[in-house]
Design a protein that fits this description.
Elements lengths: L1 E6 L2 H14 L5 E5 L6 H12 L13 E4 L5 E5 L9 H4 L1 H6 L3 E5 L13 E8 L2 E7 L8 H9 L3 E3 L6
Parallel strand pairs: 2-5, 2-6, 4-5
Antiparallel strand pairs: 1-7, 1-8, 3-4, 6-7
Helix pairs in contact: 1-2, 1-5
């Protein structure tokens, strides 16, 4: 599965996060990539707010990992300062996944291939408030994601196999 969705403003980015929240299952891994300011944390804010509007979301750049007591529980990881997958050992991320947490990993490309085959990858791009997000995964469970997002996000979905009319 591979498609791109146009996100015309920050509300659409948060809405994408909220819609993804409804689809997440315990143990999921979501890799978030994109330049600084591309909207990774904005998307996470929308996702966590959909699970529990009272939970404040801060970027885990310095703490490396923020845990949110939502359902499902969220481990929000920032790999900006990590040198590679070995640094994940300090976070016990595999143990958190086994305990049912969902891992939202900013700067996920810094992990190399550690989670790539078992993850939903979101690549945000653009500047200012207008962005786009490319979503991809080899996992069959995400194959219907384009259709699920069509009416809920408010952006335009483009895929080789499916286009919003």
């Amino acid at each position: 599965m591979n498609f791109t969705i146009d996100l015309p403003d920050e509300d659409a980015t948060r809405s994408l996060g909220a819609r993804l929240a409804a689809l997440l299952q315990s143990g999921d891994v979501v890799l978030l990539t994109g330049e600084m300011g591309a909207g990774k944390t904005t998307l996470v804010r929308g996702l966590v707010a959909a699970l529990d509007p009272g939970v404040p979301v801060t970027s885990p750049t310095f703490s490396l990992c923020q845990l949110y007591d939502t359902v499902p529980a969220i481990a929000h990881v920032d790999c900006w300062r990590m040198e590679g997958p070995r640094d994940l050992n300090e976070l016990d991320l595999d143990e958190l996944l086994e305990r049912g947490y969902v891992a939202l990993i900013e700067w996920g490309e810094r992990l190399g291939e550690y989670y790539a085959s078992a993850a939903l990858s979101l690549t945000l791009s653009g500047s200012g408030v207008h962005r786009s997000c490319r979503l991809s995964s080899d996992l069959a469970r995400w194959s219907g994601l384009a259709q699920a997002l069509e009416t809920d996000v408010g952006g335009t979905v483009e895929s080789e196999s499916w286009r919003r009319s």
